[in-house]
Design goal:
By secondary structure, the chain is of the alpha+beta class. It has one domain. The chain contains two helices and three strands; from the N terminus they run E-H-E-H-E. Strands 2-1-3 form a three-stranded antiparallel beta sheet. The radius of gyration is 15 Å and the shape is globular.
């Protein structure tokens, strides 16, 4: 992903494996960013720029919601999910 090519809605992305997660971040923020390296995320075009959405629950600390916004867009890369499809119109994914 680059500044000149904006990702489309519902595109999959992940934090680059080479991105150094700052040890000064909260432990829960670091855990979320590590998970984003492993499992990725889904981008949406609704909301504010770098808006991390979660369930409405007061147990989510403000710091956890704010710190991931410090990760620059260049730290993410698009993921090609086409190989996961069983067929283009089936709405099924491979389980392997």
């Amino acid at each position: 992903m680059s500044a000149t090519v904006a990702p489309s809605s519902l595109e999959s992305g992940e934090l680059k494996a080479s991105y150094r997660i700052a040890p000064s971040l909260r432990p829960d923020t670091r855990a979320v960013l590590v998970a984003t390296k492993r499992t990725g995320l889904v981008l949406a075009d609704n909301g504010s720029p770098w808006f991390f959405q979660c369930t409405a629950d007061r147990r989510w600390p403000t710091g956890l919601l704010d710190e991931p916004k410090t990760v620059p867009a260049a730290a993410f890369e698009a993921v090609d999910t086409a190989p996961l499809m069983v067929s283009p119109n089936s709405m099924q994914v491979r389980s392997e």
